[in-house]
Specification:
2 copies of one chain form a homodimer. With about 120 residues, chain A is mainly beta. The first copy, chain A, has one domain: Jelly Rolls (Sandwich). In chain A, about 10% of the residues lie in helices and about 45% in strands. The interface between A and B is large, with 37 and 37 residues. Strand 7 of chain A pairs antiparallel with strand 1 of chain B, so a sheet runs across the interface.
């Protein structure tokens, strides 16, 4: 899979919000892009960190006792085990680095939850 | 380590070429930035893929029988085991995702080689 992919273009071309798409695999981590708007859900990943890189727009990651605000070009790693909730009023394009088994809504299964299989096929 | 870091600014602020700096760790992978110009060295990583994301400028990754050209915003994953050589005529800023044990010059130890310890402290 020796591809060259522009992250922002790939994210901008996604057909729906909150539906991550896998673009590549580096060692045991997937590289994904997503187009998001609004909020996802409070959740955590017990054993896996999750990297957010902002490709366009801005994103707030809410934690239980504080939050971090991310602008275009910023990255932030959500440590494993911490409850968090991504929120953005306007559309935001993000890249994600996650262990291949990580579910984007953590232990929470909801209407927005997309299986890894769906993320590979989208 | 709940930090917010702008990748391009971090890379632009590096004091020297070919000296990657570790900015974070997502699972078993380091997030690094580097400022590069010229060419590194032909090398490979037997057991580790290596992700390049172009933050500014352009980069050619030479393989033994072809090459790929990367522009700002593009990412490319060098598959494990493949001989490769990053080359750029003008300054280029890159982010890297690599297994925590990956040496940036692979099995080649040369003047440009920076130890993982040096990459953490730079």
């Amino acid at each position: 899979m020796e591809q060259v992919i522009n992250l922002e273009n790939a994210a901008a071309g996604l057909p729906e919000y909150w539906s991550p798409k896998v673009l590549g695999k580096v060692n045991d981590q997937f590289v994904k892009v997503a187009k998001i708007k609004g909020e996802l859900a409070w959740h955590k990943h017990d054993d896996e960190d999750e990297l957010f890189l902002i490709l366009d727009g801005q994103l707030r990651i809410e934690y239980e006792d504080h939050f971090v605000d991310l602008q275009k070009g910023d990255f932030h790693i959500v440590p494993k085990g911490l409850m968090h909730n991504p929120v953005c009023e306007d559309e935001c394009l993000v890249a994600l680095i996650e262990t291949v088994t990580t579910l984007h809504t953590g232990e929470v299964i909801m209407e927005k939850t997309k299986s890894i299989k769906a993320q590979l096929e989208s």
